[in-house]
Amino acid sequence: MELFGYFASALIGISLGLIGGGGSILTVPVMVYLFGVQPLLATSYSLFIVGSTSLIGSLSYFRQGLVSLKASLFFGSASVITVFATRKFLVPIIPKEIITIQGFTVTESFLTMVLFGLLMLVASISMILDKNTAGYEKECSDCIKFFKLLGYGIGIGLVTGLLGAGGGFLLIPALVFLIKLPMKKAVGTSLAIIAMNSLFGFAGDLGHFNIKWGFLLTITAIAAAGIFVGGFLSKKIPGDKLKKGFGWFVLVMGIYIIIKEVGS
């Protein structure tokens, strides 16, 4: 299972390189089901892996001038503070046993995985129904308003903080439709925001978990290498069809996780 886990780690990076987002949502299930990591710790590992790989991915976009620094700052300032506070103060006080209903005890691990399964369903539907919107030809700098992005940024930060997922499938539509970024610039900006959110969230975890750095850095290196493979393949494979196919895979995985957790 561990060998398959290393292979799946490469697929996380490859999917990020191929479709620019969404692949990171597989990180927590890979950690939990293939490496046997406890769910809450898996969300912490996911933050580091997703943050590091997104940072690497965003650098190539930045060199091409496809990262909006203003949008990253405004969006990131709200979400970064939220994700850091969530990991630093909220996650540590979540009890191991949350509530008992008619003899069934809802544990922290159960709730984490069920919520993650639901997040996968939302992400998969977003990818399947994606109309491959081209975005806007010209950036609207006057559309980038701090308070306009504040509530959305807090929501993204809360999701990232609780579940360790980057939220790229939520960020890209917001960047395209709320502040009218061209699609390629929205993808690059999304990766930059995800990198900030995830790495600041992981920083909030320091001292709360016993981090196995050797293991974590190995998985991160494998996923990061996958980004370059995915970037190469993206030039040869139609991205829109691939994204929908990946969406169906994520949908099946989300349903599997919910059924597995509820039935166990």
What summary fits the major beta sheet? Answer: 2 strands, antiparallel
How big a fraction of the residues is strand? under 5%
Order of helices and strands: HHHHEEHHHHHH
- Secondary structure: number of strands: 2
Structural class by SSE content: mainly alpha
The number of helical segments is 10
What does this protein look like?
This protein is mainly α and 264 residues long. The chain has one domain (2-263). The chain is built from 10 helices and 2 strands; from the N terminus they run H-H-H-H-E-E-H-H-H-H-H-H. A two-stranded antiparallel ribbon has the order 1-2. A hairpin with a 2-residue loop joins strand 1 and strand 2. The longest helix has 25 residues, at 39-63. The protein starts with a helix and ends with a helix.
Features:
264 residues, mainly alpha, two-stranded antiparallel sheet, 10 helices, 2 strands, 72% helix, 3% strand, globular
Which helices and strands occur, and which strands form pairs?
Elements: H1 2-19, H2 27-34, H3 39-63, H4 69-90, E1 97-101, E2 104-107, H5 108-128, H6 146-163, H7 168-177, H8 183-205, H9 213-233, H10 239-263
Antiparallel strand pairs: 1-2
Helix pairs in contact: 1-2, 1-9, 2-3, 3-8, 3-9, 4-6, 4-8, 5-10, 7-8
Care to give the gist of this entry?
With about 260 residues, this protein is mostly helical. The chain is about 70% helix and about 5% strand.
